[in-house]
Design a protein that fits this description.
The longest helix is centred in the N-terminal third of the chain and has 18 residues. This protein starts with 6 loop residues before the first strand and ends with a helix. The protein has about 210 residues and is of the alpha/beta class. The chain is built from 8 helices and 6 strands; from the N terminus they run E-H-H-E-H-E-H-H-H-E-H-E-E-H. The chain has a 6-stranded mixed β-sheet with strand order 3-2-4-1-6-5. Helices cover about 40% and strands about 15% of the residues.
């Protein structure tokens, strides 16, 4: 492991699942493995990008789609790196909306698009999570990672909803890889986002948590 000049976090969205392809919400209740095209996407497109990042470790959500993507990446590296789990990087809980196509979800939750954009969603009426609950668990996880792995390159294998929340609060996070096959999606499967952590970021994380 190298001593880095800075702490850099790379947020990686897992590869495609059958439900992703069908535009069905998974949340945490639909725990699928990757589709065949998803595995191929990792092998052909994501692995070359990850090899350039020189990661020291990967932290992954416990959901199968994230775990499998992380395992494929680790296996591809000449010098394997540790893979750890942190359940706080899991996808949001949509409750009973899980497993439903987006068309149906938008009928049941008419303000879906606006609430997603403004991070004001509340899925508790469906047995799921609120935006505030997701914000707290994700930001505390990021703060812990940035503090515990100071001056390291850390890959975080996570989900679209987690990345969307981070981008809302920290728009300075930059996308360094966008899957061209999914160019119409704002956060596509296998997308990679880079966040060079500075003291101000740590201070802002702490302020948003408290």
């Amino acid at each position: 492991m190298h001593i880095r000049e800075n702490t850099t976090l790379y947020f990686i969205r897992h590869a495609q699942t059958p439900s992703n392809f069908a535009n069905i919400k998974q949340g945490i209740k639909i725990d699928e493995y990757l589709s065949s095209p998803g595995v191929l996407d990792v092998q052909k497109n994501l692995i070359p990008v990850i090899k350039l990042l020189d990661l020291d470790l990967i932290i992954t959500s416990h959901l199968h789609r994230a775990e499998e993507t992380a395992a494929l990446l680790r296996q591809s590296l000449k010098n394997p790196i540790p893979v750890y789990h942190d359940h706080r990087f899991r996808e949001r809980d949509f409750g009973s909306l899980s497993g439903k196509p987006m068309e149906e979800i938008k009928k049941l939750a008419p303000s879906y698009d606006e609430d997603e954009k403004n991070q004001t969603y509340d899925y508790t009426r469906f047995g799921g999570e609120t935006a505030e609950q997701v914000r707290f668990r994700v930001l505390t996880a990021v703060l812990d990672v940035a503090s515990n792995y100071d001056h390291e390159n850390v890959g975080i294998m996570t989900h679209g909803g987690v990345i969307r929340a981070l981008l809302f609060y920290f728009p300075n996070i930059i996308r360094v890889f966008h899957e061209t096959q999914n160019v119409l999606k704002d956060i596509a499967n296998c997308d990679v986002y880079e966040w060079g952590i500075h003291q101000k970021d740590l201070d802002d994380l702490k302020a948003l948590i408290n």
